[in-house]
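Workshop exercise sheet. Pairs work together: one partner reads the sequence aloud, the other fills in the structure field after running the prediction. Swap roles for the next sheet.
Pair: D.N. / O.F.
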Amino acid sequence: MLVTPQHYLRAGSQSYPTSAAVPSSDGSTTVYFISSKPDGVEASNWIQTDPKKGWFTILLLYNPLEAFFFKT
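Structure field:
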């Protein structure tokens, strides 16, 4: 895990241990990967990075709906 002042580096759909990411009005969810939280962005939609260190994303999908498999 990338060590930053942000204790839980996550932007998920469940609200534990932090708030769930907030979707937009069209149902999409935008997650920001940047060293400082952008103005007007929910803390739950931001993952703090360190410009001096590399990072990579791990995407975990739990119980995806049928639409995921058919790309609909």
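Discussion prompt: The helical segments are 66-70. What would you look at next?
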